[in-house]
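Work Package 3 committed the consortium to producing structural models of liganded targets before the mid-term review. Because experimental data for this complex are still outstanding, the team generated a predictive model from sequence and the ligand definition alone, so that downstream docking and mutagenesis planning could proceed in parallel. The input record is reproduced below exactly as it was submitted to the modelling pipeline, together with the SMILES string for zinc ion.
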Amino acid sequence: MSLAQALAAQVVKPVRVCTVALLLEQLEPEDAAALQKALDLPQSEKPTAEIHSALLSEGYRLAASTLGNHRFGRCCCGTR
Ligand SMILES: [Zn+2]
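The resulting structure, written out as tokens with the ligand in place, is given here.
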């Protein structure tokens, strides 16, 4: 599924997950796994800024702070 298709198929969900979690759901399984793996690495090994740059370079627009909040459990997902 292309990003355009994924966005078109996106339905409005109750806000229980953040932008990052939604992105993880929409990415190809391979990409989602790679992103999750990167997020699970220690910040010293894989800085959030690096992950953010990679996402931007692939056309995924989200704030670095949003990414960091999800990574460290400070987003709405963390309260589930
Ligand atoms: Zn989250």
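Reviewers should note the following from the model. The chain has a mean pLDDT of 90. These observations will guide the Year 2 experiments.
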